[in-house]
Amino acid sequence: MAEAPDCLGQKPTLKEVRKYVVPHVSSGKWEDLGIELDFDDDGTLVDHIRKERGGDEAKCCLDVLKAWLQGKGVEPKTWRTLVGCLREIEAEEAVRSIEENILQTTSSATQPSQDEQLLESEPPSQPTPDVEPATIDYSLKLEPGKEIRGYQWELAEPGIEGENYIICAPTGTGKTLVAGLIISEHLQKRKLDGKTRKVIFMVKTKPLAQQQMDALQKLIPGASVNCCTGDDAVLSTIQLLLKEEDVIVCTDGKFLNELNDSKVRLDEISLIVIDECHHTRKSAAYARVMECYLKEKQSGQGELPQVVGLTASPGAGDNPCLSREKTLDHLHTLCALMDATGGIKTVTENTEELEKHTNKPIFRLQILPCRDYNEPFIAKITKEMAILEAKVDLRCPFQRWSQQYETAIQQKKQPLEMELSPKHRDTINTLKLLRCYSETLNIYMD
Questions:
Q1: pTM (two decimals)
Q2: Whether pLDDT at 19 is above 60
Q3: N or C: which end of the chain has fewer CB within 10 A?
Q4: 185: closest CA among 222, 227, 231, 147?
């Protein structure tokens, strides 16, 4: 039997197992593991995966992982860890062969082994927590002197009740705390009900992922919170983190990729929190994730997670005039894409308290003197513009930085562009340059 390496503790976590073993398995550097391989051990299992992984490589993969795990006494997830490691190196056929072999052995043997009993009682698709549920405390923990404000309870109430909705509150009013409150109550309730409790917290950028992970770890110290972004090593995948973490903070692109690759399924997740959810539009990653969600909802297959969105402003869409009708259309579309059947939740009862904790910009009016038209910069630009105007025969009585001047350029350029003639190319380009000069003067004069 192979000896377990001494570099880790006597009770390593699943994360430590993968971090130590998988890079060597995938690269073939068996000697770096410090494990002596017994090529006669458990050969029946190896035969099932030899075709997929290639001879001795398949045997090494299985022998190394099984011997290492048995030597370290990793329980009760021995076979799930093995399966997870094999999936990490894309040996899906090997995974299926191992599972089939163990199940057949279990059914035919009079005294099934401990690993076989574990596989039968705890299938890989239904991971269990490392700690007994009764000992886990998902309570929210606040810093000394801080408390949950009334408007934060108001914003969190629909989420605690399990609704799909969008939380809308100004920047700096504690939306992350509201999300933490919802997650805390969600985990606690699912634990008591004996249901799956896996939370995905999606953000737009990698720095935000790290920031939100740090915040949630402090808010819910009893929950296991981890971060997964596109820059992580090959070991850090949402698929594997779902087996051991309660909350995974990830970028939208990372989650979308694993969802498209069928590495994760929506029915494995119990709650999705989407930060800056106003980006759920058109072909954005948020929108594509929710498109998968809505397709599964229409099919009626499997239990779908609760969805909660966070935003400081849902926006008005492509609506420069800010018309009421188009703004409402945009908000309805956003709610539809987010499956926000509970609508958009704003503070309506604790408005005075919200006002006290809203960061307000300080406005200061400072009147500046007008620019001197004879400044060297203006003189230089206007001289160049006069030369170009002579080339294209542009005569305009208005100031060169005025709106009327730009209109005169457009009126001369438009008919030339409609002719689509190469002979007008220089004239059109000169008029475009004049417009750039005009905009430059306009900015400078302001």
A1: 0.58
A2: no
A3: C
A4: 222
